[in-house]
Amino acid sequence: MQGKLLVGVMIATIAGSAAAQSAVDAAKSSPLSASIADVPSAIVDMDAITVTGVQPGPGLWRFHKGDRVLWILGTLSPLPKNITWVSRDVNAAVAASGVVLQSPGLAVTADIGFFGRLSLVPSLFKLRKNPNGTKLQEVLPPDLYARWQVLKVKYIGNDRTSEKWRPVFAANELYQAALEKNGLVESGIIGPVLDKAVKAAGIETRPTVLTIKIDEPKETLKEFNASTLNDVECLRKTLDRLETDLAVMKTRANAWAGGDIDALRALPYDDQSLACQSSLTDSGFTQKLGIENIQSKMASRWYQVVDDALQEHKVVFATVQISQLLKPDGLVAKLQAKGYEVESP
């Protein structure tokens, strides 16, 4: 689940946290599609104002090898909050597919029931906090803390709750608040449309996530609460993004909504979520759980699920982050190396 934090997934899967489940939902995005005919249009304003109204979104990538076809929809987060995404091409591609593959990601699971989850609640309250009551000002270099304070006042206000949090959680709180104040959302635009298309087609959805099972969730959370993380870089990159990329983030979101692939190609960005994920997956704590080389393992899992699905079905629909489709050394190049021909939107 690119862009989504491992601990967010841990909370949702182990403890049933409703707040963290929104992170999981954002990573669940499903499949893809083709053209943009007959879609009602709204004016797309490509300045720092987010677009509204009905929008067509991007076209689909079509990969084919022999008689097998893989449709891929490139997803983006965040997107304008007040758009309605309508893509008849996606509906048609889903309807023609035998299975829809959900987006790649990471899931952490544990065999516990409802009462087991309740027993973890005390540990969850401690999860966000730095060990031993350490405050953010003590963890961050002075220059970084000064930058944090400026943006915190701007987007969160004077609430000092987050001053006790680990940098990775403070970064996420700040990022979410900044998106909200700028008319952007991480989830809720793509997922519901795809779910409706899948339901109408009456076909299977299949996860592509890499799943890691925790045998002792209570002890695991206890150990996490006592551990330190190398997560200062996560907060640094989040501040960098909000200071330099927020206006462009709106332009990028508008470009996705309007289906402007050329504009998206011209607006690459440094995704802070990778640094935030690494602060968790590269820590000594997570390595004890066997969580190492996560990006590579997640990619291998996705390709394996795609290969298996295309063995079973002539047409398969999938979703991945659009940045993976636009990078010169990204998904397109890798699928071409596997013998696929590609038709870009």
TrEMBL record:
Q: Keywords of this protein's UniProt record, alphabetized?
A: Coiled coil, Signal
Which organism is the protein's source? Lysobacter gummosus
Concerning Pfam families, the annotation shows: TraB_PrgY_gumN
Q: Which InterPro entries match?
A: TraB/PrgY/GumN_fam
Record flagged with keyword Ribonucleoprotein: no
**CDD domains hit by this protein:** GumN
The coiled-coil regions, if any, are 225-252
Q: Which domain of life is it from?
A: Bacteria
Identify this protein by name.
TraB/GumN family protein
Q: Which residues form the signal peptide?
A: 1-20
